[in-house]
Specification:
Elements: E1 4-11, H1 19-34, E2 40-42, H2 56-62, H3 65-79, E3 82-84, E4 88-92, E5 101-109, E6 115-120, H4 126-133, E7 149-152, E8 155-159, H5 168-176, E9 181-186, H6 195-200, H7 204-220, E10 223-228, E11 246-249, E12 253-255, E13 266-273, H8 274-284, H9 286-290, H10 301-304
Parallel strand pairs: 1-2, 2-3, 8-9, 9-10
Antiparallel strand pairs: 1-13, 4-5, 5-6, 7-8, 10-11, 11-12
């Protein structure tokens, strides 16, 4: 019988530049999930600081990243729960003749407090790249480093971050290495859309997210754990935080009644039934096709053609 994994998507409102407060609030949510038998708790991107790179305090606070990572490791070990603490922006000091670097990093922490996986964001949202080029901050953009997967208590998993969602190639690399669950911490707002787009549809980003998440789940026969930031309860409005945190699965679509249609801070606890993924692959045979030596798209044969379908999470 296929296992069922209980996960919590925590749609946190990250108060700008207040990491102590945001960590305390996140820890409270995680403790509540652990008391309900949750095995994995996931937080949003930038959950400790929000995204305010123009503020001179931002980089200074990012220098404390290791302190908070260790706190989450201690919490995971205490509660015997897996935690993906959204992303933690890390300030790394470089040589005197080089610019300091900010790294946007997601960690997968196991129930013993050990780090099982680390992923550094590859695809920078265009406005973040513009900030970097204007000298507001210096965010590293990885080029040809492969997307990593890692072993977890739930099998092989992969992580992406926010704008990575827009690129199906990232998913293909992950499932090509056997990932069946893809975790995506996100900081996505309605105002990420252009003025033109908003004039046509004020909820255009909601349409983007819901359409893309459904597509990625189906076209990769995987579960997508999407966790976005929410706004303060009672104070959100259109043009601000998008929320919509959910688990998306083939056949089922969006799961997470408390957050999947909400922009406000909140939490959903969701069962991921791996039988659904088994049956989706039996039906669509996406991974089976990708594992064939004569698969049409030869630019990825080095990743999974030689390894065969077993590397793709075959049933």
């Amino acid at each position: 019988m296929a296992p069922i994994h209980k996960v919590a998507v925590i749609q946190l409102y990250p108060k700008p530049l207040q990491p102590d407060l945001n960590f305390a609030k996140a820890a409270d949510f995680i403790r509540k999930t652990a008391s309900q038998g949750v095995q994995l708790a996931v937080l949003p991107e930038y959950h400790l600081t929000n995204w305010v790179p123009q503020d001179p305090k931002f980089s200074e606070l990012c220098g404390q990243w290791e302190t908070y990572l260790k706190k989450y490791q201690t919490l995971a070990k205490e509660l015997k729960i897996c935690i993906v603490p959204g992303t933690i922006v890390e300030l790394h000091k470089e040589a005197e003749d080089e610019e300091d670097k900010l790294l946007n990093v997601a960690y997968f922490i196991g129930p013993d407090g050990g780090v099982l996986g680390r992923y550094e964001k590859k695809n920078l949202w265009v406005r973040i790249g513009l900030c970097r080029r204007q000298g507001i901050t210096h965010v590293r953009e990885l080029m040809h480093d492969p997307h990593p997967v890692f072993q977890t208590p739930f099998g092989v998993c992969g992580m992406l971050i926010c704008w990575d969602l827009a690129f199906p190639e990232g998913f293909r690399e992950l499932i090509g290495q056997g990932a069946r669950i893809v975790i995506i911490p996100t900081f996505w707002t309605h105002s990420d859309c252009s003025e033109y787009g908003l004039s046509k549809n004020p909820m255009a980003e909601k349409l983007f997210l819901e359409s893309t998440l459904n597509s990625r789940a189906y076209e990769n026969t995987c579960a997508v754990i999407f966790v976005n930031a929410g706004g303060p309860v009672g104070s959100t409005g259109r043009g601000t935080y998008a929320g919509l945190s959910r688990v998306t699965m083939p056949f089922l679509g969006a799961l997470g009644d408390e957050t999947k249609d909400s922009e406000e801070e909140g939490m959903s606890i969701i069962d991921i039934d791996m039988e659904v993924l088994d049956e989706a692959e039996k039906n669509y045979k996406v991974r089976e096709d990708m594992g064939r030596a004569d698969w049409h798209y030869t630019y990825r044969h080095d990743n999974f053609g030689e390894k065969g379908p077993n590397s793709l999470g075959k049933l």
